[in-house]
Amino acid sequence: MAGRKQFDVDEALRGAMLVFWRWGYSEASIDRLTEGTGLGRGSLYGTFGDKSALFRKSLERYAQTYHPLYEQALSGPHSSPGAVVAAYLGVTLNRIADPDVPDGCLLTMSAAQLPALDAEGQAMVRAMIATLRGMLEQALRAAGAGEREAAELALCTLATNKSLAVLSRAGFSGEELSTVAAVAAR
Amino acid sequence: MAGRKQFDVDEALRGAMLVFWRWGYSEASIDRLTEGTGLGRGSLYGTFGDKSALFRKSLERYAQTYHPLYEQALSGPHSSPGAVVAAYLGVTLNRIADPDVPDGCLLTMSAAQLPALDAEGQAMVRAMIATLRGMLEQALRAAGAGEREAAELALCTLATNKSLAVLSRAGFSGEELSTVAAVAAR
DNA sequence: CGCATCTTGGAACGATCAGTACAAGATAGT
DNA sequence: ACTATCTTGTACTGATCGTTCCAAGATGCG
């Protein structure tokens, strides 16, 4: 009991993000979220609002944490469009290999479970995918890809990113995921 | 009320399969399953057992329905490994475009939601993925691919298959999905 | 017809769900 | 130190979850 918050909001948000990450939206019950954040129900609802709002804030935190990694990887200079793809997927592979953060990817998991989200959540997921796609396309053009090639490669790289998350979730090894990424960057 | 079953078991199973397909395991409530199959609760449980068993039977029916399509597409003869990949992904694209069967793919969705399944369900999903992978590898070897190339391409084609389902679920157009498939078969 | 067997819909179960209410405790300003 | 304000844990709500139970009705066999 306290008069000032007894937890770090961002750290709690990270905990919530990991729960959504691990379990997906439907299976991320409030009980699991309280356990994952270390907060009581009162603090959870008082700070973040309902489950849907907490999910969206988790998505935002996800973006704040990981988009810079992708941006940096894409910022170049790159010798070829293939190098851009390799750099992008390299970030994904590193993330999947991170022992602090279990396999999978909040965004991808969300994309696969859109029917479980409400309208606001769905819109945010779609918007984030569009953002990543735009970042990729721009970097590919900067690396010398033509308009058409940039669009095509951005789409396919996004696709590979999604497949890496799903395969990781399905138990494929890091070596196998690396192979998939390497072929995509070829 | 009846003494003999008043519904077709296989047709009911198809209905259940579509519900799991559309909603994923967690969001496929018994109410949705009774609506999707047209059965009452008593008939559902009496015929198929609990939700987990119904899911596994839906997976079996899925395999019985769609594996032959993939087998036929893979049966060749094919002029090159790339043709095998194109044939395989063509089946997936056709399935996604089928208006009778909403976008997405039960198996892929299941792979992305493994934590929601019990041990038996998880094992069956993994086994089905392994089966498809084996089918692909064999067909690729038959099309002249080397041992290493066959393994690599089978893995990547499986990856593309998964990504197609996720992207479709995320609202990407049929044209975009075709592009992804075409690049993968290149 | 009479009886056993099976099917069926609906009622009901305990568990869990997301979300709310609130009293008790801790702080900050005065 | 007093008070207003905020935070926190817990008890609680109504809804929904998966599941079980059962009486009523339909069938097949003698």
From TrEMBL, chains A, B:
Q: Looking at the record's lineage, which domain of life comes first?
A: Bacteria
Q: Which InterPro entries match?
A: Homeodomain-like_sf, HTH_TetR, Tet_transcr_reg_TetR-rel_C_sf
Q: Does the keyword DNA-binding apply?
A: yes
Q: Which residues bind DNA?
A: 29-48
Q: Which UniProt keywords apply?
A: DNA-binding, Transcription, Transcription regulation
Q: Name one Pfam family in it.
A: TetR_N
Domain HTH tetR-type residues, every copy? 6-66
For this protein, the record's SUPFAM superfamilies field holds: Homeodomain-like, Tetracyclin repressor-like, C-terminal domain
Q: What is the name of this protein?
A: TetR/AcrR family transcriptional regulator
